[in-house]
Amino acid sequence: MPDRLDFVQRANAAYIEEQYQRYRSDPASVPEDWALFFAGFDLSENPARRPGRSARAGGAFGLVHAYRELGHLIARLNPLGGDADTHPLLELSAFGLREADLGAPTDGAPFHGDAGATLGDLLAALRETYCGSIGVEYMNISDPERRAWLEERMESSHNRPALASEAKRTILHRMLAADAFEQFLHVKYVGQKRFSLEGASSLIPLLDTLIDVAADTGVEQLVLGMPHRGRLSVLAHIMGKPLGAIFGEFESHFAPSEVSGHGDVKYHLGYSSSRAAHHGRTVHLDLNFNPSHLEMVNPVVLGSMRARQALMNDPAGDRGVPVLIHGDAAFSGEGIVPETLGMAPLPAYQTGGTVHVVVNNQIGFTTAPWHARATRYCTDIAKVIDAPVFHVNGDDPEAVVHVAALAMAYRTQFRRDVLIDLACYRKHGHNEMDDPTFTQPAMYQKITAHTPAARSYAERLIADGVLDPPGLEAIEREIDGVLQAAHQRTRTESPNRAAAPLGGAWKGLEWAAEDWSADTRVDRERLVQIVERLAETPAGFTPHPKIARLHADRAEMVRRDRIDWGLGESLAYGSLLVEGRNVRLSGQDTGRGTFSHRHAVLRDHVDGTRWIPLQHLSESQGRFEVIDTPLNESACLGFEYGYSTADPHTLVLWEAQFGDFVNVAQVYVDQFLASAESKWQRMSGLVLLLPHGYEGQGPEHSSARLERFLELCANGNMQVCNPTTPAQLFHVLRRQLARRFRKPLVLMTPKSLLRHKRVVSTVDELANGSFQVAIDDAVADPATVRRVLLTSGKFYYTLLEAREERGIADAALVRVEQYYPFPSAELVAILARYPNARDIRWVQEEPANMGAWRALRHRLEALLPEGATLGLVSRKASPTPATGYYAMHVEQEQAVLDRALAVVGVRPAGARERAGARRGG
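^ that's the sequence the OP posted. Answer follows.
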């Protein structure tokens, strides 16, 4: 961040003295930064030495500066009371002033609004602007333009909106409706959790205002993310979800057969709608589904918004805005929050700024703020992104809508994140069955005695003549009538729970059926053209000598008909791009590739200029993005997942530096990737590239935790594959976009195999082949085979070389390229080719309690030929994926090879007799 006194440091001593003498004569004659600097200098020297006009003039500048920076410390923010009235840094004595000086005349400079004629008037204006129901933190912003913009708008209005009577009545109506909805649920559905919004009902007019202000500036879409608290009210009053549908979810009067998938609890559900806003405009709203893992939806929303902006050709974020609603304890406590905030300004993740709303209940479950965070405000973590924070008392709805309008206008003007800290309370416990008086008795005595914001606002409007008691009663009768009518319809009508047809960007796609095949072939001529274009660089571009050789080698590969892994991958992306599809590839070392195999981004060896060949294949090609990400896994994976849910026509891939590190983002695998279609009917075609294989690199550089993914596989929810050839990689990537549905794809990708002499494919395998879910032994003679070794991935080549070295002819090596969906039919056909093989062994390099064995064992047993046995060959069970000692790694690997290739009749551990062949799995 630039030094805030940089203007002083750059000036010479004579110039500073000249400015100081001008300031002594007339503070308004020097720029504001200089005036504030000299005011502080004078006071620090000795305020008593600056009597009279200089003290009063300098005091005016000091007052304005101090209240801009510190006024929030004595703002009336807490609806339950207890705010400080004074602060030592805001006492008159801190500015060299006395009560007697308040009558002195001043022009109020540099205050932008009406400051009256005296210092006392200026002080009153400052207190109203910065110490009322709104407290603002913005002086940490290093950009003077943004600070000045905020000052002009806040000070000219004294941070109060000028609302017409009708607007005030609308705000009241919305808050009364929100409270009545919650109370209706409380009475009708006793004992059911709903995570009530009571105590924070001003969130509804806040969101109304955000939507209307956004619509006025041409915004067409808002994507929202929020936790479970208040979600039902937001669904009903912001998203327009029918009340009957919400009541029906409480009633649950439907048969399980009527439900698609497994569903989710009602306060996790999302919704999409189109909403009429100001001046006849329509805004599309999308509230993302969200699990109980608080804040994890944040990068998902931003990824979804980024994809939508790309589809709308909206790179600046003029037409799409993300809005994130947070809880106070989660915002300050969950690590995903700073991860997401830190990504927001980066080029690959920009969405034109997010509006953050923190619903500050002043408690986290049962933990008080002073036990939950080390900072004054729950929003202090956001200072890392130079964003303004508007703290506002949720019991002052007019102040709430004012900061909402100001926040959205700021986001529109500067395309930056902005925060609203909505200070409120939680009427009930963590849920409606929780008794909060066990842990916060004093707080809940205040809450019990507190008048709800809607009721106090109604009394205020009646006192101001905006509304009369009969008018209030009419509003309440109308709201109750709507609730009662919707509830009655719910009791008499059968809910329609059919899966909604796919629309928007998903229009034309389908839900997966039985046929998962895909034509992934590409003409040989086109493949050759892509390789030629990949080798081209601009005139004057000087590639790294090794990269120049790489290009030459790849051209030679095509001539010699030997495609390696890196080229096979590039051809998969390139062929999709020339077909007009888009590719978005991200990861911590993705441009080069962790193992220097990809080189999708070239840099001029002289000046560092970037050149990305896959962006220059043809004039009509699709968009190719390759992103070197920040050093986090969780937020980055969440962002790419969100992107994949909003754009099914882009191949979205996230690559772990080593596959082991995906466990840092396990929430996105469990709660989103594996289960979203079943819970929420939300498809994703996201691809995870997870380098996996045992090369003696230790516990954190060996295993992508294959077993964890396989544990999650059920009902055709995703694909888990371990391709062993460049052609297999080529086809499995292309089929992601070739089918009429989308499923996540988890790929165990190689490390040492990237340059293995045997890991090559022919051009014809790319041009005329397809992805093979299982690959039979191409060498072994079926008549002489007595055992079949089933394996996958890198270990196939280890076994192949050991079999050749030992001259073994009775063992067939069969590769399982796709673990899930499991290739039962293909393996049955392969095993039938070996009529004399009754010794079937699953061979893996992972320990016995890891890898694929436990997930595949029952499936393999179900397809064993008559009289065959099944056994496991692996490392011994272990609490750690791999040893950290290379010599031990070699010893363990040798033991696995010895057992796998042992003389027929010596059964491996775990072998079990099976009488008859059972099918299924």
